[in-house]
Amino acid sequence: MQVTPMIWLITIAVTILFFVYEFFAHVRKPHEPSIAESARWSAFYIGLALLFGAGIGTVSGWTYGGEYFAGYLTEKALSIDNLFVFLIVMAGFAVPKKYQQKVLMIGIIIALILRGGFIAVGAALIENFSWVFYIFGALLLVLAYRQAFSSHESNPADGKFMTLVRRVLPVTDEYHQDKLTVMQGGKRFITPMLLTIIAIGFVDLIFAVDSIPAIYGLTNEAYIVFTANAFALMGLRQLFFLIGGLLERLVYLAQGLAVILAFIGVKLVFHALHVNELPFINDGQPLLWVPEIPIWLSLLFITATIVVATVASLLKTRGDENKKDHGQIHGEPVTTAGPHDRDEDPDKTAADIYK
User: Fold this and answer.
1) Dihedral of CA 88/77/2/277: which sign?
2) How many CB atoms lie within 10 A of CB 171?
3) CB 3.0 to 4.6 Å from 212: which of 49, 74, 118, 284, for a disulfide?
4) Residue 206 burial (CB count, 10 A)
5) Is the distance from CB of 330 to CB of 308 less than 8 angstroms?
């Protein structure tokens, strides 16, 4: 795939312009987006991503087009999982809904910058060291295991990193609109708003660790890796408000992502063996008998896994709701409080909640 420096510059410039437009058109004035607004813009960005993939397939061939679509689907699924953690972080810091857009926007920009750095490093490693595929494959298999058995109930707002940040930086007890810092008593304080953004940035760094190796397991083209990530992150803010209630219903999303990461991990290990140069494996010769998983199979497998995980999740939560309703009809006690329910005492400040 031939990508000139000019195409790179145009792509990065257009991506920046999209985010600048997003900020001034939707985020600058604090408000909670309506369902209609979120649905309209989510559909626009998804349509734009699909149109771009069709363009890659038409211009560069459908092998690259398939790699883009497989990468986009994987990154979008991982981004939705990222949204779940964002939801927990903002609940932990009690971010008012009208300011959540700004937090999400800054968090998404941080994610794109971090992933851009990881993409550049990954491209350089792959170009010079074929054995890096072994490392990427092993990393994805470990992350798949952790993803399958992890719990989203832990709150990054209460983690060791944020505890350290609070000790180092002076923090106000309350939000001051959407300001990041304020002056009090002649001293500069950071607000819970900035603290939330720091937590989101830390979460982004963690998610980039599995995001970039995953997509490099589907394509070696840095341009496809970047654009798939950029389109997966575009519209993520609107998607947060559109499916915020649905996120808690995707109970098997983590397991679905674990299957996808494990599949790509195996694909990477197979590829590493197929291009092997390590002297202690087959005397440094490639193992050509090891199969290469074609991109069409990867795309089909990833799509099927996402669909199965989503349908199974919705069936599970619907079944649980029916059981609760059945219990209420027969007069049985039903506990509706969940692990994420929190005290709604209006007198509590943000500091009372996240301390």
Assistant:
1) positive
2) 17
3) 118
4) 14
5) no
Query: How does 22-45 read in b/e, with b if 16+ C-beta sit within 10 Å?
Result: beeebbeeeeebeeeebbebbeeb
What gap in Å lies between CA 66 and CA 178, rounded to an integer? 42
Which among 353, 350, 334 is positioned nearest to 342, based on CA atoms?
353
Model confidence at 352: pLDDT above 60: no
| Residues 231/49, Cβ–Cβ less than 8 Å | yes
> How high does pLDDT run on average in the chain?
80
Read off the amino acid at residue 66.
Answer: G
Buried b (16+ CB within 10 A) or exposed e, 239-259: bbbbbbeebebbebbbbbbbb
List CB contacts of 141: < 8 A, sequence separation 6 or more.
261, 262, 265, 266, 269
Distances (CA, A) of 142 to 67, 139, 147, 225, 263: 23, 5, 9, 22, 12
Q: Under a CB-based contact definition with an 8 Å cutoff, are residues 197 and 107 in contact?
A: yes
Rg (CA), the chain: 22
333 has a pLDDT exceeding 80: no
Whole-model pTM? Answer: 0.76
Single-letter amino acid code for the residue at 2: Q
Q: How far apart are CA 20 and CA 11, in angstroms?
A: 14
- Contact (CB, 8 A) for 92 and 182: no
Phi-psi region of 283 (alpha: psi -120 to 50; beta: other; left: phi over 0): left
Report pLDDT for 156: 63
Q: Distance between CA 229 and CA 238 in Å, rounded?
A: 16
* Cβ-contact 287, 276 below 8 angstroms: yes
